[in-house]
Amino acid sequence: MGLANPGNKYASTRHNVGSWFVRRLANHYQNVWRKDSDVFGYTTQLLILGYHIWLLIPDTFMNRSGKSIDAIAKLYRIIPDQILVVHDDLNLPAGRAKFKRGGGSSGHNGLKNIRSYFSNFKRLRIGIGYPSDRNNITNYVLDTPSDLEMKLITSTIEEAIYCCTMISFKDGLMKAMSRLHSFNANNYVY
């Protein structure tokens, strides 16, 4: 599930990084998205190494993301441990990403809402950096990244997609985590 706010107004904002990830993943497999009112969002299905993977971008605002993920989980009998929520993270600089299980929401309204439905799910945190003024967080996440930040985020998303495909292999999760957690797009993007 790639967290996002709906509409063109928010499409290129830092807060929609989760949706950027799942869109690029679907593009790698040349999949088409369809609006699915049963799950309050846009969906597509991938077949990766014999695994059926549902991708979801909620068509709800961030603070209502749990409604969409709950609907798709019930519809396709997806257990919380099989869910990967991809989201922006202020506590990681642009160019970094990390897998995580559980943990706090760090004030992220999408994660807060999802926690009201599920307590045990995996996360892919994609760094967007922190604003210079801590009182400006809302404006920061709802603003577009600079050109350099966009290059760093895009490079990180590509690496995260590669690491996600590693998870299906033996010892894949540990290898994927090790690789992604040591990746720093600043070493590759100038």
Keywords, please?
190 residues; alpha+beta; three-stranded antiparallel β-sheet; three-stranded mixed β-sheet; 6 helices; 6 strands; globular
Structure overview:
The protein is α+β, with helices and mostly antiparallel strands and 190 residues long. Helices cover 35% and strands 19% of the residues. It contains 6 helices and 6 strands. The protein has a 3-stranded antiparallel β-sheet with strand order 1-2-3. Strands 4-6-5 form a 3-stranded mixed β-sheet. Strand 2 (41-48) and strand 3 form a beta hairpin. Helix 1 packs across helix 5 and helix 5 packs antiparallel against helix 6 (172-182).
Give the termini separation. 30 Å
Helix and strand composition category: alpha+beta
Widest sheet, order of strands: 1-2-3
The average pLDDT value, as a whole number, equals 92
Strand portion: 15-25%
Spans where pLDDT lies below 50 across 5 or more residues: none
Order of helices and strands: HEEEHEEHEHHH
Q: Describe the largest sheet.
A: 3 strands, antiparallel
Backbone shape: globular
Tell how many strands the DSSP assignment holds.
6
Helix content: 25-40%
Q: Please, how many helices?
A: 6
As a whole number of angstroms, the C-alpha radius of gyration is 16 Å
Secondary structure elements and pairings:
Blueprint: H1 17-28, E1 34-36, E2 41-48, E3 51-58, H2 65-76, E4 84-89, E5 97-101, H3 109-115, E6 122-127, H4 137-141, H5 147-166, H6 172-182
Parallel strand pairs: 4-6
Antiparallel strand pairs: 1-2, 2-3, 5-6
How would you summarize this macromolecular structure in one to three sentences?
The protein is α+β, with helices and mostly antiparallel strands.
